[in-house]
Amino acid sequence: MKLLSDATTPFGRKVLVAAIERTIVLEESFVPLDGTGPLDQWNPLRQIPTLVLDDGRAIYDSDVIMDYLDTCHRAEPLIPKADRFDVLTRMALGNGLIEATLLRRLETVRAAGERSPSFIEKMEQRIERALRALDAQVQSLADSGTLRADQITAPSITLVQGDLATHAFADQSFDLVYSIGVLAERRETSFLSHAIWSAPSDPRPPAFKLSTLTRPTK
């Protein structure tokens, strides 16, 4: 199986970590998102990650891929049947958090005359609500030994190493995790301070967790 992704998407990263955790062999292939690569052949939405199966089918988005991976191993399921809807809901919460942060960021870099302060505030409020909801579910997200899909999704988006408040970024760059961290500190939200999980199977170095995310996609 081949995972079409790139070096910056946390959605692709969570799929890769899940595969490694369950000893599923995936070939990761970085693809351009401008239509010049093979992505359109497999995903008409031109989004990553996309999983290309050996039989020629393609599966997307990231949560559908995570669900499919449970058919590829015999270990504990990534999405347990007993808690299926709770796990899926926490996955949706993590996905929504990063999407709201992306939308906020894209709005802040628009020309001043085109920028909508009310939309920015709306996204900040959504981010705050999501962070507080994750705060309330820290115990449910605590590492229980065998990682579930929700435990992989939330930390892959929000947990970083280093000092978020003082990390220096280039003027033209931004980091969704950094943005969430700044908002969390501003709103006195404590989710980021909880050591939920540090992924031993995340194949990328700590610096990647503070990398520039130019186009995260679901």
Q: What share of the residues does DSSP label as strand, in percent? A: 5-15%
N-to-C CA distance? 19 Å
Radius of gyration: 17 Å
CATH topology (fold) name of the largest domain = Glutathione S-transferase Yfyf (Class Pi), Chain A, domain 2
Q: Provide the structure class.
A: mainly alpha
Please report the total strand number as a whole number: 4
Helix count from the secondary structure assignment:
8
Keywords:
single chain, 218 residues, mainly alpha, Glutathione S-transferase Yfyf (Class Pi), Chain A, domain 2, 8 helices, 4 strands, flat, disordered C terminus
Describe this structure in words.
With 218 residues, the protein is mostly helical. The chain folds into 2 domains: 2-69, Glutaredoxin (3-Layer(aba) Sandwich); 84-210, Glutathione S-transferase Yfyf (Class Pi), Chain A, domain 2 (Up-down Bundle). The chain is built from 8 helices and 4 strands, in the order E-H-E-H-E-E-H-H-H-H-H-H. It has helices at 10-21, 39-42, 62-69, 84-108, 117-136, 138-141, 149-158, 176-186; strands at 2-5, 27-30, 50-52, 58-59. Strands 2-1-3-4 form a 4-stranded mixed sheet. Strand 3 and strand 4 (58-59) form a beta hairpin. Helix 4 runs parallel beside helix 7 and helix 4 (84-108) packs across helix 8. The radius of gyration is 17 Å and the shape is flat. The protein starts with a strand and ends in a 32-residue tail after the last helix.
